[in-house]
Amino acid sequence: MASFNEILSQVKRQVREVSVEDTRARVHGAGGEPPPVLVDIRERDEYEQGFIGKAEWIPRGFLELKIEDLVPDRNREVILYCAGGTRSALAARSLQELGYERVSSMAGGFRAWKQAGHAFDRPRNLSAEQVKRYSRHIMLPEVGEVGQGKLLDAKVLCLGAGGLGSPSSLYLAAAGVGTIGMVDDDLVDESNLQRQILHNMERLGLPKVESARKTLQALNPDVKVIAHQTRLTSENVLDIIGGYDLIVDGADNFPTRYLLNDAALKLGKPVVHASIFRFEGQLTTFLPHEGPCYRCLYPDPPPPGMAPSCQEAGVLGVLPGIVGTLQANEALKIILGVGQTLSGRLLVFDALGTKWRTLKLRKDPECRVCSKKPEEIELIDYEAFCSIAG
Amino acid sequence: MPNVRIPTPLRKYTQGREEVTIDGETVGSVLDGLEQSYPGIKERICDEAGKVRRFVNVFVGEDDIRFLDNLATAVKASDEISIVPAIAGG
Q1: B53 in A contact zone (CB under 8 Å)
Q2: What is the pTM of this model?
Q3: Fewer Cβ in 10 A, N or C end of chain A?
Q4: Does a structural domain hold residue B90?
Q5: DSSP helix/strand/coil, B13
Q6: How many domains are there within chain B?
């Protein structure tokens, strides 16, 4: 019977090995083709000590089970690494047997990478409770522990703790978004409870942002909720939104929406936009300078006489639930860097017909705000003429 | 005849109808026809000079007419025209 060393030498003759330097150059996209998929196959305790930034993590014991989810294309180049290059060589042979034609093992493993002085990341260490709480996220290759770490590190501002802000902030909190800011100057009123599921009868008269803080923290103690009990103005908007990675716009009035758009462009913050009226919802994502902005869509707010009047307002209670939940979906994708955002697409939902339409949005090269340099954008406080309670 | 999708805020002009059929060869002529059938509605879409207001968008299919030929954009009988005004509720 062959000894382990004999088998290893045989395996090493059969699999391709790449050097640390070659791996580094290829993973960073040198050369025209798509970079190889780099997979760290070490055990959890090793991985937690540090890993190569672009690597995906599948412990050796799960490699054959999970590789097809991560790399469906068997012609895609895959580089495996372990601590010293032995386990990755054995694993490379297993992947060859599974039909992966361009798989190699990084010679010397993570030890050699570190010795060469190359940068590496450390995962955010999830506690045992967090591993349990977020297990359904961690199972998804698109999220995993790294993605869950991104969510825990993310800072999202929900503008409005009302109809849209309720479902979006609840799902963001449940997902483990580590910092959630809530902006609202209003108090909880009985007429809110038909749709604003953050609040309840015991919170009547309480500031909405305080009620939101209680609800979100009761749902997930990992979440730090920052209450901004104020209305956005040109004076405070940059300070408030400056501390967040992205903004979920569930405001209930035009002046705030235009002010937010202009301020977010000035600071380069993505905005997940939604608005509702009666049975209709609109939803899109504005990525600063990459895609269209709110003013490319609607250059100026309607004058008071032209906006739907307060008496006409009213909204089906579940509508903000449907639309606000999609805002949370957009926000999570942006944080995780997965999927395709709604940038350049406006979703219009008609609750009566249960119909969705997707309309194309384009960046207006002559847009009076996003065509300007950020430092030239001036903030405008439009006169508040009607707060359309959503 | 092209179908015109009426947004919720303008349905009071169309007796609550969410979709109406209006004859016309361009978006402009369809909007004129809409006004004849449902007086008062065009003023909510176009300004005094006849241009589409800056807080309203008109789409033919999925394309914004501002990036086509504006009101002169040709429409076929099978087209769907959507009027999409800014709404602010939250």
Answers
A1: yes
A2: 0.81
A3: N
A4: no
A5: coil
A6: 1
